[in-house]
Recover the amino acids of this structure.
């Protein structure tokens, strides 16, 4: 809850990444604390809100999830418009999704907002036996692009709160 005197930031957050990387699962884990093994490919446009207090501010997240348009490897301008934060997701068990994540980052940069807080999430870190993308590869790419990097799992909930907490801190600093 908001503390008196604490600044309140309303922030639009968008999710990017290929279909099946776990975008919807990450959001549902963060917002509802739930996970589904057979997450339905998102039905309609999905919009979620969540409030997170960090010491610097209380952040009201307006989270935009895709409705499957990522299949066409691009999203409508209105999806990005006014976004303060973006989370690009890949699946550690699929090199293809990491290569595609790099394209999503390029797409993001084309939107031309230098203050955008960007995170790169290596999701499905529970699938260690099937790992195709090494931690260092994700780390290096995110460093080169000024992104925050974290390995996470919507399934086990590893690092989900940490992800949004770090984004909230960065938003508080940028606002
Ligand atoms: P989206 O298309 O990017 O929104 O991906 P979804 O959230 O629909 O997830 C696609 C599939 O991956 C679903 O079957 C999820 O249950 C599964 N999934 C999502 N996150 C994880 C994870 O962290 N670990 C594992 N093992 N599976 C996951
Ligand atoms: Mg989805």
């Amino acid at each position: 809850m908001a503390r008196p005197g604490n600044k309140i930031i309303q922030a639009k957050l968008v999710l990017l990444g290929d279909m099946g990387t776990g975008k919807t699962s990450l959001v549902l884990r963060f917002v509802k604390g739930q996970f589904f093994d057979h997450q339905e490919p998102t039905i309609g446009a999905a919009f979620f809100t969540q409030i997170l207090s960090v010491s610097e501010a209380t952040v009201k997240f307006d989270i935009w999830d895709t409705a499957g348009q990522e299949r066409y490897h691009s999203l409508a301008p209105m999806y990005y418009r006014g976004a303060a934060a973006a989370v690009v997701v890949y699946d550690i068990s699929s090199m293809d999704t990491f290569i595609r994540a790099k394209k999503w980052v390029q797409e993001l940069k084309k939107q031309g907002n230098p203050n955008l807080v960007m995170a790169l999430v290596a999701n499905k870190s529970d699938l260690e036996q099937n790992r195709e993308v090494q931690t260092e590869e994700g780390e290096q790419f995110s460093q080169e692009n000024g992104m925050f990097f974290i390995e996470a799992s919507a399934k086990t909930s590893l690092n989900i709160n940490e992800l949004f907490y770090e984004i909230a801190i960065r938003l508080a600093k940028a606002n």
Q: What stands out?
A: The radius of gyration is 15 Å. The chain is about 30% helix and 25% strand. Residues 17, 19-25, 36-39, 41-42, 123-124, 126-127, 153-155 surround guanosine-5'-diphosphate (ligand 1) (CB under 6 Å).
